[in-house]
Design a protein that fits this description.
Number of helices: 13
Structural class: alpha/beta
Distance between the termini: 41 Å
Helix content: 25-40%
Order of helices and strands: HEEEHHHEHEHEHEHEEEHHHEEHEEEH
């Protein structure tokens, strides 16, 4: 059954309303309290404080209701208060909040591993380990690859984002705000050119040719037999929602297999129905050796995972993987409920419906203006790249102005991109058609008004 706006009920009225003033006095008071106690290095893009959230709506402490086109950066795919997730969490905390799986294990961890082994690509024998964040999952995927291969080098790509820990900062391509003055970084990380169709010098280059370009550089700079892992986001997130040309991922994966290199798909942002498939690699039939997951996995509760070939993960000695909070029982309960919601309501189908609605609106906008350079993405992971009129020059100023204008009208959007000129759309997969269209129309009006 494909979920429609009428099949999913919500507690909050699914309508934007910023009549209470923006930002209101309660949000301003909280901002003052925050300034006195929270480190300045933690930034927030929206100057309001949340009181409630449901479906496609976020309500602030002053009573304003905003259309949520960000999902907490692709986390609340099933909504920020999915009834099944809420019920599962309540039940879990009534029994125990923590025991540490490495000390006294519990069924929830095992059940989540069973689900991930079932849902991830490939019919080979698999093993799963649970952690807390996407960065932690990436770190451990690299650990496994290095141990299993006996090699050190790791290949990442231009425009990549993999996290904020020391190793994941090394893997991340963007300096500010993620890397500046935080070095030195972990060694043996090598960066290769990404397939970025909109910004290729040769617009005719195919995905296979772009992969060959990267492979040639790897062989020249490192040597394929020295590489432990290739890690790549099938659709890059923070880098600008870059969808590589068709054939790029399969060619890289095939070459990695030939060379004994562990191919790691970082699906932290693109996984769990976000692109209209359980995982973005499914669109081209790529089967990773290891896949990293987080964000949408548990309906907003902190949980991440790596799932991979059994021979790779079982190569690690007992005690080599884990963590005090990894696979917390409450988060596991939330994940099982969220996965059930995704299947019961066919949120893959819902993501494809969102794509159908949004791409039509965005491409019409592209035809009507000269500042929308590219429209791209899959499912409910979509982006528009804003440029200077009639060129491909990034237009970060316009991007910032559009985000502010949307917020003023009650629509929350996120920006991203190496050049700060990409608007990314990550609505909850349970958002209704009417609310989605309203948000897209506000976005279109903001671009036209500020161009």
């Amino acid at each position: 059954m494909t979920a429609t706006a009428h099949e999913i009920s919500h507690r909050l009225e699914q309508k934007r309303d910023v009549s209470a003033g923006f930002p209101g006095p309660k949000s301003q008071d909280l901002a003052n309290r925050r300034a006195a106690v929270v480190a300045a290095g933690v930034a927030s893009g929206v100057p309001v404080y949340v009181e409630d959230a449901d479906g496609g709506i976020i309500r602030d402490v002053d009573g304003n209701s905003f259309i949520d086109l960000g999902s907490g950066i692709a986390v609340t795919s099933v909504g920020a208060s999915d009834p099944a997730v809420v019920a599962a969490v309540k039940d879990a905390v009534e029994h125990f909040t923590h025991t540490c799986f490495m000390v006294t294990p519990y069924e929830g961890y095992v059940a989540v591993a069973e689900q991930l082994n079932r849902l991830t690509p490939g019919d080979h024998a698999k093993r799963t380990v649970l952690f807390n964040s996407g960065a932690e999952a990436v770190e451990n995927a690299v650990k496994v690859a290095r141990l299993a291969t006996g090699r050190d080098a790791v290949v990442a790509f231009d425009h990549a984002y993999h996290g904020r820990t020391n190793l994941t900062m090394a893997l991340t391509a963007k300096a500010m705000p993620y890397k500046t003055n935080f070095g030195p970084f972990a060694p043996e990380v090598y960066r290769m050119p990404m397939s970025y169709p909109f910004r290729e010098e040769n617009p005719e280059i195919t995905g296979a040719e772009a992969a060959k370009r990267a492979i040639t550089m790897i062989e020249k700079q490192i040597g394929g037999d020295q590489v432990a892992a290739i890690i790549i986001e099938p659709i890059q997130g923070e880098g600008g929602f870059i969808v590589p040309a068709e054939g790029f991922l399969p060619a890289l994966s095939a070459w990695a297999k030939e060379k004994g290199i562990v191919f790691i798909a970082d699906e932290v942002q693109s996984g769990f129905c976000r692109t209209g498939e359980w995982f973005a690699v499914n669109h081209e039939g790529v089967v990773p050796d290891i896949i990293t997951m987080a964000k949408g996995i548990a309906g907003g509760m902190p949980l991440s995972a790596i799932t991979g070939r059994a021979d790779l993960l079982d190569a690690v000695h007992p005690g080599g993987l884990g963590g005090t909070y990894g696979g917390n029982p409450v988060a596991c309960a939330a994940a099982l409920a969220a996965i059930n919601t995704m299947e019961e309501h066919d949120l893959n189908g819902r993501a494809r419906r969102i794509e159908e609605i949004a791409l039509g609106k965005l491409r019409q906008l592209q035809a009507e203006t000269d500042v929308v350079g590219d429209v791209r993405g899959r499912g409910a992971m979509l982006a528009i790249e804003l440029v200077q009129p009639g060129s491909k020059e990034p237009n970060a100023e316009l991007t910032k102005a559009v985000a502010a204008a949307c917020l003023k009208e009650g629509v929350i959007i996120l920006t991203c991109g190496t050049y700060g000129n990409v608007i990314r759309l990550l609505p909850p997969l349970v958002i209704g058609d009417e609310l989605l269209v309203d948000g897209l129309e506000v976005l279109a009006a903001a671009i036209k008004a500020n161009a």
